[in-house]
Amino acid sequence: MGSHLDPGLFHCCRRARGARQVLGSRWTGRHGRDTPCTREHPAEPVVDSYPGHVGAQSRVRVQGDLYHPVVPSGAVYVGRQGFGLRRSPWANPFSLRSHDRAEALRLYRQWLVGQPALVERARQELAGKQLACWCHVEDACHADVLAEIIG
């Protein structure tokens, strides 16, 4: 199953150490051991309630770790500078350390809309491409806002 995790996995199971795959209410962990999940699961996967959340259709997660990031093939990195990754012109200048997720996304939308040249550049350079960021695909992200604005 590789190092990426399916966006349909449930939040508690996805975060479990060594989790690879959810099978009903059980997750398959390291060495193929089945360990029961002790949480109740909703009928649908856990998804952020942000209304502009686009999800996995237009956004993928950077793979690897902080020191060895890998942008999935065909995707364009739209995040901040990191080891081996250059800062994207579309990176969110509003950190989750300083703001909660909803506020950071609201500020990013406001900032981006105020820069029509950057939006036009995004429409030209990012059209039809997947946007890569470090956020989990089930969480609302600035890449969702960017994808929504560029249409």
Notes on the protein architecture:
The chain has helices at 11-14, 101-113, 116-126, 142-150, and strands spanning 21-23, 26-28, 34-36, 59-61, 63-65, 68-70, 75-77, 130-133. It is of the alpha/beta class. A 3-stranded antiparallel β-sheet has the order 1-2-3, with no helix packed on it. Strands 4-8-7 form a 3-stranded parallel β-sheet, with helices on one face. Helix 2 packs parallel to helix 4 (142-150). The longest helix has 13 residues, at 101-113.
The count of DSSP E runs of length 2 or more, i.e. the number of strands, is: 8
Oligomer type: single chain
Give the SSE string. Answer: HEEEEEEEHHEH
Shape field: globular
Provide the domain count. 2
Unreliable residue runs: 1-56
Tell me the β content: 15-25%
Number of H- or I-type helical stretches = 4
- State the share of residues found in helices, binned by percent: 10-25%
Give the biggest beta sheet: 3 strands, antiparallel
How many whole angstroms does the radius of gyration measure?
Answer: 17 Å
- Structural class given helices, strands, pairing? alpha/beta
- Average of the residue pLDDT scores: 72
The strands making up the biggest β-sheet line up spatially as: 1-2-3
Tags for this entry?
25% helix, disordered N terminus, 151 residues, 3-stranded parallel sheet, globular, 3-stranded antiparallel sheet, alpha/beta, 2 domains
Topology of this protein?
Blueprint (H helix, E strand, L loop, with lengths): L10 H4 L6 E3 L2 E3 L5 E3 L22 E3 L1 E3 L2 E3 L4 E3 L23 H13 L2 H11 L3 E4 L8 H9 L1
